[in-house]
């Protein structure tokens, strides 16, 4: 697929501020080259201006993606948003960390360079003070004095380039640990962290099918807490008494060990070891001690760990009693064994997507949904069934036991987003910094379709002043010789080197 590159030249002020100098001096961002200093507008600022312009111009099509705080890190919340629902994530990429585990990363298909001045920064600085506010204060009989400050200033021509990778725009791929598709509710659940399970013991069915009661180990008449299932929201409520809250800086909850049962695997291993241990246990007992196997044998009860950003503290009413506890999402519905009096809880960081249908493809019999069934059909996630599909989601089962999940925007939506991006870059950005309006409207623009998403014109373009004070752009002819261009003007020979 072809790609797009655009290089623009603005006449603007360097309003992308840097750290303060000496307390009351506002500096601008600067670079040094060959002993000279050039001001620049950083890539994050250009990204912000571009997105803010898209928001104002196209409203609902470019709504800000939701964010989440994990520890001290603020990041996009891809559990509530993805490239299909939010164009911002599609165009500018993201990185989402999952607890202490790996992260899901999307490379931005819209590449942006710094906007570096084409003229040397001469060291200009301006003096300002809040004289108007002081005048008002004096008029009201207040004792007011001006608060002076200095600002570095630079008005110049700035060069920046944008590339759009059309192979990446409109498509995103995740590797998930599993999935489950609820055909009735049309909800696809993706397990983006490893599946965790914990089995509670001494559990009885409570009032209704959605409530389970957990009792003391030695006193089955003493209830210690409840588990409430909210199937519509895919969430569990667990009594505070059943959970332990870590004292780490980044808090997490897990079940108290005394309420957990050993898993079947450990029980089978215990039975296999039992015969061998009986022989040396008698010998060690005669010597007045435990066998080495018994001393080293520690059966670990499977548990779950849920970080603070994935659970909520709340209270619920059950049979007229108020119960305090935690809400968190479940990976699949709890499995209750009435005979063994156990309840298995499955947890994962879950991404939920509304899908009209789901397409399953790939290697057979290597991975199965947690409910043990498959629904292989076409896919088209929408907000409502009556609306046209915004894209497709395909789940491909891998031999490793995981699955590849592909989010693919519809061609119509992809073309619309591309058109909106190009219009915003061509017409200029809405920019206001330090309470001052800036002009990032291109005075010069060159765009081309390229074989690879490279800013092929960027290194060649520079400016020169004519004798009459006007400015010309040089280097375009050299840029047109680049072989990445899909169509070279005049076979690679530019007509003129100035515009």
UniProtKB/TrEMBL annotation:
Keywords: Antiviral defense. Residues 372-382 have a biased composition (Polar residues). Residues 276-288 have a biased composition (Acidic residues). It comes from the Bacteria. InterPro entries: Cas7/Cst2/DevR_sub_I-B/Tneap, CRISPR-assoc_Cas7/Cst2/DevR. Residues 266-275 have a biased composition (Basic and acidic residues). GO terms for biological process: defense response to virus. Residues 266-301, 365-388 are annotated as: Disordered. CRISPR (clustered regularly interspaced short palindromic repeat) is an adaptive immune system that provides protection against mobile genetic elements (viruses, transposable elements and conjugative plasmids). CRISPR clusters contain spacers, sequences complementary to antecedent mobile elements, and target invading nucleic acids. CRISPR clusters are transcribed and processed into CRISPR RNA (crRNA). This is Type I-B CRISPR-associated protein Cas7/Cst2/DevR. It comes from Candidatus Caldatribacterium saccharofermentans. The lineage of its organism: Bacteria, Pseudomonadati, Atribacterota, Atribacteria, Atribacterales. The gene is cas7i.
């Amino acid at each position: 697929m072809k790609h797009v590159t655009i290089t623009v030249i603005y006449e603007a002020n360097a309003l992308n501020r840097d750290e303060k100098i000496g307390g009351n001096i506002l500096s601008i961002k600067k670079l040094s080259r060959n002993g000279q200093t050039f001001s620049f507008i950083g890539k994050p600022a250009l990204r912000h201006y571009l997105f803010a312009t898209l928001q104002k111009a196209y409203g609902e099509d470019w709504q800000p993606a939701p964010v989440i705080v994990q520890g001290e890190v603020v990041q996009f919340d891809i559990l509530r948003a993805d490239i299909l629902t939010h164009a911002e994530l599609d165009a500018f990429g993201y990185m989402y960390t999952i607890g202490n585990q790996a992260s899901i990363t999307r490379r931005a298909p819209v590449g942006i360079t710094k906007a570096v001045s084409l003229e040397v920064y001469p060291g200009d600085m301006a003096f300002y003070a809040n004289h108007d506010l002081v005048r008002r204060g004096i008029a009201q009989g207040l004792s007011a004095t001006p608060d002076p400050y200095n600002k570095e200033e630079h008005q110049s021509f700035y060069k920046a380039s944008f590339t759009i990778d059309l192979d990446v725009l409109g498509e995103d791929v995740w590797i998930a640990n599993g999935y489950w598709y609820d055909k009735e509710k049309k909800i696809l659940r993706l397990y983006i962290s490893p599946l965790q399970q914990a089995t509670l013991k001494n559990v009885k069915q409570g009032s209704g099918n959605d409530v389970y009661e957990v009792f003391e180990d030695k006193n089955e008449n003493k209830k210690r807490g409840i588990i409430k299932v909210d199937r519509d929201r895919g969430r569990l409520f667990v009594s505070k008494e059943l959970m332990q809250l870590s004292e780490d800086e980044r808090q997490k909850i897990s079940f108290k060990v005394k309420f957990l049962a050993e898993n079947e695997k450990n029980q089978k291993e215990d039975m296999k070891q039992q015969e061998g241990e009986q022989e040396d246990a008698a010998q060690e007992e005669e010597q007045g001690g435990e066998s080495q196997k018994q001393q080293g044998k520690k059966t670990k009860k499977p548990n779950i760990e849920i970080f603070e950003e994935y659970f909520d503290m709340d209270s619920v009413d059950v049979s007229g009693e108020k119960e305090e506890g935690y809400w968190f999402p479940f990976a699949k519905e709890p499995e209750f064994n009435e005979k063994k009096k156990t309840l298995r809880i499955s947890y994962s960081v879950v991404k939920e997507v509304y899908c009209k249908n789901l397409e399953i493809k790939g290697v057979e019999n290597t991975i199965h949904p947690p409910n043990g069934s498959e629904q292989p059909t076409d896919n088209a996630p929408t907000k409502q069934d009556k609306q046209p599909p915004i894209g497709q989601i395909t789940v491909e089962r891998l031999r490793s036991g995981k699955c590849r999940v592909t989010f693919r925007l519809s061609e119509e939506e992809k073309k619309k987003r591309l058109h909106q991006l190009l219009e915003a870059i061509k017409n200029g950005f809405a920019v206001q910094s330090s309470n001052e309006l800036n002009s990032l409207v291109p005075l010069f623009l060159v765009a081309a379709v390229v074989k690879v998403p490279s800013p092929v014109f960027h290194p060649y373009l520079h400016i020169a002043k004519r004798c009459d004070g006007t400015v010309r752009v040089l280097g375009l002819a050299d840029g047109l010789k680049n072989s990445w261009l899909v169509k070279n003007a005049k076979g690679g020979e530019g007509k003129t080197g100035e515009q």
